[in-house]
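Q: Can I see a sequence and its folded structure?
A: Here is a first one.
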Amino acid sequence: MGFGEISELDTEDCWQILSATELGRIAASAGDSIDIFPVNFAVDGHAIVFRTAPGTKLLELAINDRVAFEVDGHDEATAWSVVVKGRAERVERQSDMDAAEELGLTPWIPTLKYRWVRIEPTEVTGRRFARGPEPERF
């Protein structure tokens, strides 16, 4: 990959990046408002799972379950971004909550977060960028 090149990631590469990442951002909307929330998360099969407490996230997801979820990262040579679009649903069944607990996901901040949310993807896309200096303008 040369400087300035952008390549599309295949679905499997996207899931590998998601599985190796701990922090992402969920974009949710209700009415005319769009919010972005950082969340630590886990991958469960081909779904995203996170814990949360009652508040704006859960309220917005109850109004509109369509979300976008994004992770990104970089090293010295490349940068990447993965976007998951899908539907978010509260995990309600005890057996599903027990399975989510087995993922070992714990809050990063000292708050009680007993509500589980699962994002079922409808689309997963990603791109990788070669990092380099800005080219000559003229």
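Q: Show me another, different protein.
A: A second, unrelated one:
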Amino acid sequence: PDTDALLVRAYRAGDERAATGLVARHAASLGRYLYSSGAGPDEIDDYVQEAFFRAFSRLETWRGDASFRSWLFTIAGNLLKDEFRRRKGRRMISIDSRHDLAGSSDPAGELAVGDAETVIRRGLATLPRLQREVFLLRVEGAEYADIAVALGTTPGAARVHYHHAVRTLKELLR
């Protein structure tokens, strides 16, 4: 399979299909990241589209020192932060719906998962910004080195922020 760097190179050379490949590789996980970061379900497609639009229009600024994925997620995160500032408020952090986590044939399981979801949502909202962003990027599969570049920190600091976030969320679930 093509790597992101090869697809970017092809797009820069005029191959429009490379853009389709990049979108296919990253749109779903970018949508989950935006949803987890507080975007409403009805806004996700617009944010994903805008993030890709900004990425492709500024592709010459991507130097390759971070992965394309991390760079794209940074663009999307900044887009969302700008929108939250514009609204002068922040919504509650969302996580995957309980229907994805428990089958509808198990009402007791749905209740338990619903309670855990509420605790996690509240816990994510209380985490310091950097811990929350590191945690959400890591959950989406980003490597510590890429997270560090995206958030302007070191891989070691990103690892520490992630572990603090996990510990805090585990304590809330007890």
